[in-house]
Design brief:
The protein has 745 residues and is of the alpha+beta class. Helix content is 25%, strand content 29%. The strands form eleven sheets. Strands 3, 4, 5, 6, 7, 8, 17, 18, 19 and 20 form a ten-stranded antiparallel beta sheet that branches. Strands 21-35-36-37-44-39-40-41 form an eight-stranded antiparallel beta sheet. It has a six-stranded antiparallel beta sheet with strand order 10-15-12-13-14-11, with no helix packed on it.
Length: 745
Amino acid sequence: MPRSTSVRRGRVARAAAVTATATALVLSVVSGGSAYGDVQVAPTWHKYVLGPSSSTVTPVAVKTRGAVTHPNALVHGGHPATLTTSAGQTPASILLDFGKDVAGTPYLDIAKLTGSPSLSLVTSESLQSIRTPANTTTTAASGAGAGSVSVSTTANLEVGNTLTIGSGATAQVRTIDAFDKASTTVTFRPSLSSDVPAGTKVTSSPGAPTADDSGGLSGFGGTATLTPTSTGRLTGPFRGGFRYVLITLTTPGSISLSGAGAGFQAFRATPDDYQGSFESSSDKLNRMWYSGAYTVQLDMAHDGLNGLAGNRILDGAKRDRSIWTGDLLVEGPVAIGTLGTAGADYLKSSLDLVLASQRADGALPGTPDFTPRKTPLFYSDNYSGFGVRAVIDYYRYTGDADYAATKLPALERELQYSAQFVDGNGLVVSNDRDYWQTTQSGEVTAYSLYYYARLRDMAWLETKIGSSSKAADYRAQAETIKTSVNDRLWSPALGAYMQSSTSPSILVEDANALALQYGIVPADKVESVKTALRSLWTSHGAILGTGLKDPYGHTIEPFGNGLETAARFTIGDTAGALDLMDRTWGQMVDQANPLYTGAFWEFLTTDGTVTRAQDSLAHGWAAAPTVQLTEQVLGVTPVEPGYAVWSVQPHPGDLKWSRGTVPTPHGAISVDWTSNPSHFVLDVDGPAGTTGTVSVPATADSTVVVDGTTVWAHGRSLGSGAQLSDGYVSVNVGAGSHHIVADRK
C-alpha cells in the first residue's frame, strides 16, 4: 500500500482489481423485454456513503425562535432569512440542522444588517444539549404582586423563556421580561399570585444557548460572539464535531442571511475515495459499516489543521480530539479497510507521534498530544501496550516491513517496561486505569489478557522481522498467563472469569470477552462464559459488569461491546454477535433517534441515553462493526503481512448475501457470496502475486466444487487441499477469480 501524502490522493490511488458486483458501472436497462442500451449506474453501496459531496455543507432543516422570517430560505433558497430582536422580547434565533455530524467552520452569508448587531454562535452534536435550562433558587422572599425575584445565579436565563418558580401544585409559571446579572434579579410577567419564600426552586425552559463542549479537553467549543460590520460571508471559529448550529441575535436590530452552512474540515470521503466497500442483505448492517467509516473520517485531522503537524486519527470529532492508542486499535483497521492508502498514511503518521513520545523506561503514552495542553499523557500500562499492538496492526494490514523493522526496538522496550507489572504467577498487578477510567487492584483478568494479546502479537512480529528466540520467549510467557488465568481467576460461582483476585464476585464484560476471543477458555467452559456474558445484556447493549459504571455514570461502552461481538464471531456464535451488534449500534444508525449523528457514540447509559453534553457522539473506538462486518461477515482477513496470503471465511448467520472489496498493497480482494438452505455460493477475486484460503460453510456430507471441479465429497478431500474443520470446508486458491459452491446436505 504505497504511502500517500495527500488527503485527496485516495481518489487516484484506487486499487485496480474491483469486482463487478461491487463497482459495476455499466448495466443493461430492460423495459418491456427490450434492451434500451447501456447506462452508467452508481454501485448500490454509494447510497450509504455519509461524507459530503462538497467541502461546503448546508443545513437540511431549520427551526426558529423569536421574530424570524423566511427561515427555510437557508435550506431551499429564496428571500433572505431575517432575524429581528427587539428590546425586552425573545432574542431571534435560527437553529441549523445538518442532519448528521459535520466538522469545520460555520459561516453566515449576510445580505443586510441594521444597527450594530451582535450574534452568538453555539454548536452541539445533539438537540438536547444546544440549550441549557436555568436551575437556581431565590435568595430572598418575595410577596404576592411582585414582578421580580432575586436568584442565586442568572446563568442560562434568556428573555422570553418560561420561568417556573416553585414546584408541584404551588408552582407559578411566568415569562421572563429581563434579568440583571449584577444584581442577580429576574423580572417577569404576570406578577406573583402568592408569596415566594427564600430558597424556592427556580427553573426555566427551554434555556439559553449553550455549546456541548465549552473548550474543555478539546480546546474548541463554547459560545462564539460574532459582530458583523458589513455584508458578505462571516465565518465562525472551528468546531470539531456538530450536527446543530444555533445562531442568536442577542442585541436589538435585524440581520438578513442569504445563506448559512459550514466549511467541512475533516477527511471528506466521497464514494471515489473508498478503496473498500461492504453490502449485505441487511440494510441496517450496511448503514453500520458506513457509519463506522464516517465516524473515523470525522476523527481524521489533516496535517496543519489548527496548527498541528502531521495527519492524525483522533479519538473523537468533538473531544478529546487527541490521538489515543486504544482507539487506534479500532480506528486503524477501519481507516485502512475503507480508505486504503490514505487511511494507512493517517495511521502511520499517528503512530509516529505516539512513538516519538516514548519515555526512557519504555512506556508509551496513551495519547501523545493530550488537549488542550498538547503534551503526552502516560495514562496506563494498558494504553502503553495498545500502542504496541496498533503498530503491529499497521504492519499486518499494509506489509510495510521497513517501518515495522525500524520501530521494533521501541516495541521491545515497551514490553520490558510492562514486564514490571507481572507478578510471580505471570499475571498483571498494576492498580492501573483502563478504558472505563477506574483502577482495578490485585491480579486483574482483563489486564492480564491484554498483556497476553500483546505477547502473542509480538511473537508473530518477531517471527516475521525479528528474533525467533524472542518470539519463543513471548509465546512461553503468554502460555503462562493462559494457565494462570484459568487456575487463579476462574470463578465457579460466576461460571466465568472474575474481575480480579480482589473482586472475585464481580462479572465483567471485557475480561470474559477477551478470554473467548483469544482462546483462553477451555472447550468445556465456553458455553458457560457465553451464557454469563448474555446476562449483562440490555436492550441497548451489554453493560460493563454487574454494579459497575464509570465515574460519569455510563454503564454501556461500545468499545467493550466490540470486544464481545468479536468474541462471539470467534467462537462461531454469529447469531449472538449480530444480535448484540443490533442492540448496541442499531439505535445509533436509526435516523429517528434524537441522538442520531450518522456516527457512533462513545458511551451510553443503561436506558440507551447519553446524559452528559460533552460525551462524544462521533467516537472512533465505537467503530468495531465496520471491521467485523468486513472480516467476519464478508470474511476477509490477512494471514501474512499486507495480505500476501489472505483468508476468506464468511459468517453468514441468517443473511442471504454479502459482497464487498478489501484494499491491499497488491490490489483489491473482492468477495461476493449468497446463502440459502440448499447452497452456499462464493465468488472471490484475489490480486496478482497473492494466494488465499477460502472456507465455506459445509459438513462432511457436503459436496464442494471449485471452478467446476469437485474438491470435497463423501467426507474426503479430492483436491485443492480441501479440509473440513468446525463446520467449514477450506480450499487453497491462487490469484484471480474463483467460483466455489457448497451444497447444504
